[in-house]
Design goal:
97 residues; Rossmann fold; 4 helices; 28% helix
Length: 97
């Protein structure tokens, strides 16, 4: 049975992937517009709220909290917020792009 060679460009789709559909409420804590737009393209949640780091105290209670690199310093200064986030939500802290 002959094998047909597949060129690399044929294997890789140029189309962006479909966003991951989630039945969750998601909060993005960041002020980085590029990061926020990237997350919005990657996930399609039931509810999405974008919060600047100064309003991160609104994030506990969301099913998933995605924290941008830019927000980590201000969140780490709030001793009560980090345990509250971890105990009430799934937390994803994004590394520097």
């Amino acid at each position: 049975m002959p094998c047909e060679a597949i060129e690399p460009q044929q294997r890789l789709s140029r189309e962006p992937p479909e966003p991951l559909k989630l039945e969750w409420s998601v909060a993005i804590v960041s002020e980085d517009e590029t990061f926020i737009e990237t997350i919005k393209q990657m996930v399609s949640p039931r509810e999405l709220k974008v919060l600047p780091p100064s309003r991160a105290e609104e994030a506990p209670g969301f099913d998933l909290v995605i924290v941008g690199w830019d927000a980590l310093p201000s969140l780490s200064r709030n001793a009560e917020l980090v345990p509250s986030l971890v105990s009430s939500s799934r937390v994803l802290a994004a590394a520097e792009p």
